[in-house]
Design goal:
132 residues, mainly alpha, de novo design (two linked rop proteins), 4 helices, 0% strand
């Protein structure tokens, strides 16, 4: 795996950013824009995907990073569930649902792969680099 120097280098974060933008776009349309509770929930969940990757990475230790990655992965699951609610309420069509659902699912798989990698590596993170 290539060395990641900043959280913006992480592909799952990049895709999380795209997910957040797509969710923002759909929640501003039609009836979705007036369903304040669902709108706030899905906006929060989609933002949490990218934010928790960034926060975990910035903490500098692999155990903390893994912890925040699991939160991020859970948030991707929340987005997928909330997309079903948006579909069931006819706020989005089947095509939009499938595109955004698949993006969230891809992110979830990427995060799972990153967690698996971090669990297998002997590298503990920059936080512990110079400690004995």
């Amino acid at each position: 795996m290539a060395t990641i120097r900043k959280f913006e280098d992480i592909e799952a974060w990049q895709k999380g950013r795209e997910l957040s933008k797509r969710i923002y776009s759909i929640t501003g349309q039609n009836s979705f824009a007036r369903d304040f509770k669902l709108k706030d929930q899905i906006l929060g969940s989609s933002g949490s995907v990218m934010d928790n990757i960034a926060e975990g990475f910035e903490r500098g230790g692999n155990n903390e990073f893994i912890h925040f990655l699991t939160i991020s992965k859970g948030s991707a699951g929340e987005v997928k569930s909330q997309l079903y609610r948006a579909l069931d309420r006819n706020y989005i069509d089947e095509t939009t649902f499938r595109e955004i659902y698949d993006l969230a699912d891809d992110i979830s798989r990427m995060i799972a792969g990153l967690i698996s990698y971090l669990n297998k590596t002997d590298i503990k993170g920059l936080k512990y680099k110079d400690r004995k």
